[in-house]
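Escalation from tier 1.

The customer reports that the assembly of two entities below gives different C-alpha cells on two consecutive runs. Tier 1 could not reproduce it. I'm attaching the input and our single run for tier 2 to review.
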Amino acid sequence: MKVVAASVIAAGLTLSALQAGAQERVLRMDDGLQLTLPEGWRLDEAGDDRFDATGRRRVHLVCETHACKHTQETCTFVLRAKPVAGANDAARLADLYEAPLTRYARLKSVLKSTSKDAEIRQDLAIRRIGDRDWYVVETDARHNYKSGYFAETVIDGTYLGAICKTCETGEIRHQGGQKMLMSLKSDKARSAALR
Amino acid sequence: MTGVPKIAARPAPALTLPLAFETQLTLADVTEASLLANAPLIRSNRRRLLTIGLPSLWFFAILGAFAGWRPARSPLSFAQLGDFLAIFIGDIPFYLLLVISAGVVLWWLIHPWRMRRLMQKALRAAGFETPILLRYVIEADGLTTREPQRESFTPWSHISRLDEGRDHLFFVLPSQEETVALPKRAIPAGQIDSLRGWLGQWIGVAQLLPEPPAPPDNALSFEVAMEPKDWAAHVAWYQDLPELRRSRRWGIVRNWLLASLAVPVLTIAAWALDTERLPVSLSLPIFWDLFPSFFWKPALAFGVLAALRLAFDRPLMRWFAGYSGATLYNSTSKTPNRFVVDDSGILTVKGAATTFVKWPGVIGLARQPEHWLMRISRGSTLIVPRRALDPAQSERLEALCSRHIQQA
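Tier 1 run:
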C-alpha cells in the first residue's frame, strides 16, 4: 500500500483507498491537501496534467453514477505552485478579490468559461463550506451548456481552485463537487514526511 | 573671370505701387497673427506635454506600482514616496495607465485648438470686440496699415520675414511685438502670386530711409529703452484683467472637475465598449466599490492641487509675468521707443517704424506704480514707463490722458 501511495505522490497526486472495502476514497494533492471523493467519482487520468502551461497543477474528476449520466458532472481542482502572501488564510482569501476590478475580471471570466449569455446564479462572495471559507461564484448556463460552480480557497498559504460543471438545471446542483469541497483537509506533516 | 556665366538677377515681379487692399479685420484674423507671433512659446509648451508630462506620469505610476518592493526598515526613500502615491495610483491597472497616457496625447493633439480659444479670449478681454476696417498700403519703402483711429508704418527692412497660412499672409516682425495679418480675401484674385514674389524680394532688405519728421514744438516728447520689467508689468496687468482672472479661476475649477471625472468616465467608457461586458446589475456594485479609489481619492488629490493653484494665483502670475517679461525683452528689438504726445494722439517711433493712435483709439488707461498702460485697438497696449518722464512731463501726460481717454 505504501509503495502505491509513494508512486502516485511522485506523480503529484495520490488516489488511494483508506479503508479497504469502503467506497470512500481520498485524493491527495501536493502541499498535504486531501479531498474525499464521493461514490461514483473517479480521476480522469486522461485529463490529469500535472504541469500545464501556466505552472498550475490540475486534477480532473468525473462522476459516473447513474444520476450523472444526465447531469454529466465534472470537477477540476487546480493548485497554484506559488504560495499566496498574507498574514493568515482568512486575510489571504479576502485579498484575492479585495480590488473591485479583480472581482469584475473574475465574474467576466466565469461567465465566459460557462457559455455565451450565461448568467450569474450566485454572486461572488466568501461562503463557509465544511470547515473552510471559500470564494464562491455560481453560473447558470444557456440551454445545452453546462452551468458552473467556481470555488477558491487558501489553505496554509496554498491556493486551491475548484471548477465544477453540470447539465443539471434544477435548484439543487453540484452536490458531488460541494461534498468534495467540504471534505478538504490539510495534512502538512504527512506531506513533508513523504517527501 | 571670363567664361563664367553670370547668374541673371531674378526680375522683380511687376507691381503697380502703391497697392492698396481693404478688409474688415476680424477677431479670427488677429488671433491667427497673435498665434504666429507667439508660436515659439506655444510650440515649446506643447512639446513639454510629451517630453515632461508623459514621462512624469509613467515615472510616478511605476513608482506606485513598485511601492511594495523595498528592503525592510528602509530609510526615507523613493519607495516611501511611492507608498504615498500608491494611495492614488497604485491600484490603477496597466490598461488604465495606457488610457491616461492616451489622454495626455489627446491633450497634446488639441493643444493648438485650446491655444486658439485662449488667445481669442485674451484678445476679447483686452478690448477686441467688433471687426475693424483696415486698409493696407504697400509702397516701395514699407507697409502702411490704416484703421479709423490708428495708422502704422513699417519699413520692409523692419520686417523679418513673410509667413503664410491657409487664409493669410503674415508680416512677421523680428520680435513678438505685433505680427501683421493680411487676409488673402482682401487681395484681388490673380495678384497674390506676384505680391508674394515682390514681398519676398524686399522684406528684410536694408533700406535707406528718411529721418522721421521732428515732433511739433508744443508736443510732449520723450524716449525710453524698454526693459524686462516693462514687459513684465504689461503681462502682469494683462493677466490681472477681471475677465482673464475670472476665466483662469473657472479654468482651474473646470480642470479639477475634468481630472476628477476622467478615470470614472474612462472606466465606464471602457466597460461600454467591451463586447463581453458584465451586465449593469453586476457592474454597478463593482463601480460603486471603485468610487473611493477611482473618484473620491483622485478628486481630493486634484482638489488640493486646485486649491493650492487658486491660493497661489497671484505669486504664480507674478513669476509668470517676470518670466514672460524676460522672454519678451530677449526677443524684441532694443531700439529705444520715442513717444510724441499731443492733443491729436500718440505717435510712437521705433527706428523708422511708426504708429500713430488718435485719442479715440485709446480705449482704456491703467495707472501702474511704474507705468501707464494704454489699451488700443486690436488688443494691443502701449507701455509707457514712468521713468522716461520728468515730473512736469508726467503731469502733462496725465492731463492729456484725463482730457482724451474716456475711461481714464
